[in-house]
Amino acid sequence: MSGNGKDPVLVVVQLSGGNDFMNTLVPYNEGHYYDARPLVNIPQDEVLPISETLGFNPNASRLKELYDGGDVAVIQGVGYPNSSRSHFRGMDILHTCEPDRISTEGWVAKLTQRLDPQSEQPLTAVNIGRGLPRAMVAPGVTATSVGDLDTYGLMTDIELEEERNRDLEVFKRMYTPAVGAGLVMDYLRQTGIDSLAGADILAEVPGMYESSVEYGSNPIAKALRDVARIHTAGVGTRIFYTNHIGWDTHSHQPQQHPGLLRDVTSALADFMTDLREHDAAEEVAILVFTEFGRRMKDNGSGTDHGSGGGAFIIGANVDGGLYGEYPSVAPKDWLNGEDLKHSVDFRGVYGTMVEQWMGEDPQDIVVGDFEQVQPFERTLVGAN
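The structure corresponding to this sequence follows.
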């Protein structure tokens, strides 16, 4: 619990499609990088340096501002052994921490159950967006999904039930290719997904919020604004989850990736400003992750699915800097002749957030014991 009496809160931002980590944090003095990517590269004179070897993409300037302020831990070389290149299976693994088998338990859901074992608080975990990520669901665990906070509290019970059914339909479409129709249907029948219980509470939230921060009009900005509105209302939410789509840049990457970076990094910076304005930043930590990185060589228009990506941990209590090792871009070190090697297991990153930030034992949640990073200068665990 923090000095202002508030419990730690985790915000998870999923970048769906596989963010190109090399073009986010650029090895701008590496000739091998420019040799491998004659088209899809960030020119050396445009990079925003943070060291003699690495610099941010210029379209991530708002993230660099946070980094310069000490609020961003960059986790380099994130992955897992024998990384899947399938979106469905890759994200399924990232959601369940089970690379070797199909699981029906998401890691966030297991953390939710730890925080609220009797499911007494319907808003312990809230997803902002359509559907419900697999990370947030497990048999018997209640999670709330909010598509549009401004209309959510105005819906009738029938409309809420219809929205819940639409969310389940989205869930079914998303995960049937990965785990099969039978397992998905069995799973949905025994899962306590309840979009109704928290509606009356959330109906009051929009009217409780004022801010001088002007977020962008894109989906991730709107989603993080909703997170800020719910968090500052003090309704007891401990975990927020949201998803930013569009990161599968096989083609037209030079045209698409810059806008994606601008949208998400600006939204994150505005969100942090908003939290600070409300004296609500101290208890929040943000985890930004993606299902895999991209391959070393460009394909003439974009980059294909790869490995050895990266993650970001952002917050007022973060000890900003670089964590893990940036993967070698020398051809002799490429994995399978075309990929970056990982040095940090994603389950260790999750474990870091679960144990160091949320104060829970991570072993059952991340399904094993994985080396953690140390990205916090202080945490709320054990305080008060």
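The chain has twelve helices and 14 strands.
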